[in-house]
Amino acid sequence: MNAPAEATLLGLGVYRPRRVVPNAEIVEAIDSSDEWIQQRSGIRSRRWAGDDESVQMMSVSAARDAITAAGLEPGQVDAVIVATVSHLMQTPAVAPAVAHELGLERPAAFDISAACAGFCYGLGLARDMVRGGSARHVLVIGVERLSDITDRSDRGTAFIFADGAGAVVVGPAPEGTAGVGPVVWGSDGEQFDLIRQREDWRDVVASDDPAMPHLVMQGNAVFRWAAFEMGKVAAEILDRSDLTLDDIDAFVPHQANRRITDVMARSLHLPERIAVAHDIVDQGNTSAASVPLALHRLVSEGAVQPGQRALLVAFGAGLAYAGQVVTVPPTVR
Ligand SMILES: CC(C)(COP(=O)(O)OP(=O)(O)OC[C@H]1O[C@@H](n2cnc3c(N)ncnc32)[C@H](O)[C@@H]1OP(=O)(O)O)[C@@H](O)C(=O)NCCC(=O)NCCS
């Protein structure tokens, strides 16, 4: 259909929900303190979506900005991948509805479920679609409304999870360049139970007292896995891309916990000139949305420039992980 080409990021857009929720607002329900949360996770505040800020609405808003940033008309996008675990309808996927609202013309449209690794999984697919010629311009959206599936009284998760969306357009790279590198991805299903929905929908319905099946997490085990295994994955991404840290300008890990980012940065021996994303401080952990949101903040604050390279690595429930090196697109909105 299309002549094969290397892939690149053409545009980036994000949506941050309006409502800022400081630690002070949530500590009472979990018998915690602002100081404890900041010290253990780095989070000062997070954003929780209001009634009108649905998964679809946040996706459309971020995607519109990504398409405009890419200098494209909506009709030029021919595939939409939405990574999310919080579109609370089993079927259909949210992607076709997002595409329709954006005015796209009959694109391929589907959701993927790879939790916090979802955006980087989607980016890996989009790169292969562009290189393989099955699509020319692919919209990849990471979006979550985790506040819907977070137990506000659970000490282990209530302060971590948050809402938001980020989107990129992946398209053909100018000849001789490649703006999205090869994906390194994988999973460890033996640790399937470490972060999960508490029970499946059939058990909820069969229960005498049906309630939303919230996320539950074994925080210590997740911390150890992420902090020590994901540094190795980041190193593998560089190897697979034929790059070294000398070629990298920004490190954008999934914003799970600031301490995990710090351990990874130390294990990678990141030089000080490499900008490290800490979007979690004011945004919380937004799962599939966290990597594009964090990249967007680094670019908006001038810590990394268009044309520079960012090392992405994302990880979470599954346990699933994925990452790649990207070139920062010319325009972000
Ligand atoms: C959740 C997390 C911050 C908890 O920190 P931790 O140091 O592992 O906490 P622990 O569960 O070992 O508990 C340590 C102490 O803090 C207390 N504690 C636990 N949660 C608390 C809270 N919300 N507020 C205050 N104290 C709390 C415990 O009771 C315990 O007290 P004790 O020492 O007197 O027994 C940490 O495990 C973590 O960040 N894990 C990774 C989570 C993550 O990133 N998930 C997303 C992956 S996508």
Can you tell me about this structure?
- It is a single chain.
- The protein has 333 residues and is α/β, with parallel strands linked by helices.
- The chain folds into two domains: 7-172, Thiolase/Chalcone synthase (Peroxisomal Thiolase, Chain A, domain 1, 3-Layer(aba) Sandwich), CATH 3.40.47; 184-327, Peroxisomal Thiolase, Chain A, domain 1.
- 31% of the residues lie in helices and 23% in strands.
- β13 and β14 (320-327) form a beta hairpin.
- α3 (55-69) crosses α4 and α7 (219-240) runs parallel beside α8.
- The mean pLDDT is 95.
- The structure holds coenzyme A.
- The active site is at 116, 254, 285.
- Its EC number is 2.3.1.180.
Number of contiguous helices? 10
Low-confidence regions:
none
Helix/strand order = EEHHEHEHEHEEEEHEHEHEHHEE
Radius of gyration (Å): 19 Å
- Tell me the CATH superfamily of the largest domain: Thiolase/Chalcone synthase
How many strand segments? 14
- Say which molecules are bound, naming each kind only once: coenzyme A
**CATH structural class of the largest domain:** Alpha Beta
Q: Name the structural class.
A: alpha/beta
Helical percentage: 25-40%
Average pLDDT across residues?
95
- Biggest beta-sheet profile: 5 strands, mixed
Beta-sheet strand percentage?
15-25%
Strand order of the largest sheet: 1-7-6-4-5
Question: What count of domains describes the coordinates?
Answer: 2
